[in-house]
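Researcher: We're reviewing a set of sequences before deciding which ones to prioritize for further study. For each one, I'd like a predicted 3D structure that I can look through quickly. This is Arylsulfatase K. If possible, include the structure in token form so it fits the rest of the review sheet.
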Amino acid sequence: MRGGGPLGPAGLALLPLALPLMAAAAWASARPWPAAPRGQPRPSVVLVACDSLDGRLTFYPGNQTVDLPFVNFMKRYGTVFLNAYTNSPICCPSRAAMWSGLFTHLTESWNNFKGLDPDYVTWMDLMEKHGYHTRKYGKVDYTSGHHSVSNRVEAWTRDVDFLLRQEGRPMVNLTGDRKHVRVMEADWQNTDKAVNWIKEEAINLAQPFVLYLGLNLPHPYPSPYAGENFGSSTFLTSPYWLEKVTYEAIKIPKWSSLSEMHPVDYYSSYTKNCTGEFTKEDVRNIRAFYYAMCAETDAMLGEIISALRDTGLLKKTIVIFTADHGELAMEHRQFYKMSMYEGSSHVPLLVMGPGVKEQQQVPNVVSLVDIYPTMLDIARIPIPQNLSGYSLIPLLRGKAENEVSSKGPRPSWVLSEFHGCNVNSSTYMLRTGKWKYITYSDGRSVLPQLFDLSDDPDELTNVAVKFPVIVHSLDKILRSIVNYPKVSSSVQRYNKEQFMSWKQSLGQNYSDVIANLRWHQDWLKEPKKYENAIEKWLGKTK
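Model: Here's the predicted structure for Arylsulfatase K, in token form for your review sheet.
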């Protein structure tokens, strides 16, 4: 770990990678592509989408905590978006937004079990129809029917009057030695497949291609110590990657006392098993291991960039790097995502390639629904007017948005919403200017939150009561985008209907199955109490 820490003193020599990872500095001085001439063929596209990477790590000051050489390479030869957000801070709904170009409430991708239909027409389908060769590797996760039974049942029962721990306590695990590079082997294998495809097939294609690589990292690993069904709460890395982290730069987040927490935050913290005691060293290590996992993710991005460079394809390929959501890493006394706080909702978004302005930092708020129209714009395919997103191409070229967008000027806001597990209320975020407005359910039963990110970037002070006029104005904008009380009611009906159907399908096995989901350690202490709470919830008027 750079600068000291639990591995020993600073200055330990970094061993070379056991894999052919090209150091970004070795070829950073050479411009990877010439200026794009007019009338050139359509470019190829590579999209690398990881899981749970905090977008603030891609620019100052967050980028001081860990070495991300290939993120830095993309910044030097491309554009970084400083305010990019997920449209739903959980895996499947977020990816559904990215692949559909539509807000979560429009596709009804309510949780990790409820995403898009398998035959949904994505931007990749349209690009293939219009002459692109397409290929996917790794995690995709935008269709319905996936993830654990626990995950969906926890989402369906979020309105039940009980409080149960649904995750293992967040912990760290150091594996291997200073030569251990391939920690997340499944991701490395998919990266290898993508690299081999570039070198063996893409190089011989006559038409442009679009390649997608989905990574699991830096998502936490499963925690088998707590039982098979107890979620993923382990931050796992090796000494090799931990040495990429600057220990002294790790910021220990401030926490509100449990009694002062917003009620939704308290529910999230409790169900994520984060209300116990954590020392500063505990928190620092969790954050350090998470940053190390981000460094391993960056190396996989580097393998793709290096393969494109080695084959001569980089000069005619647009490369996009993003994530489905971020990771709180113990900010606000939580890990995981499922929150509108910056650590969870702010995603990385970097783009480089022909026609993309170099060394550009874009302050505009953007979100993952913008990927769909951007892909079509790159491929010169007409963009449907019903999409929630806007093409990023004008911003990538450094041009005024209203000069080229057929939809008119890009809005000055982005929308994110959440309807899944670990949060006991539908949540809506409007991000615009210096403000972040968060409201819940019907807009009345749960206190809203308002943060001034220019003055309070850590989101520690809710100023909703102090600025009622701002709250009213932002809520009016939000309601013009989505009738969120109506959406919240629809989700509540969906949750109850889905749970009743699932319960009936189990028959006499219901009590045993529900008791042994991820919340089993708490449930088994008072099983009748929790079953009765569910029956009371089911008995309420739909």
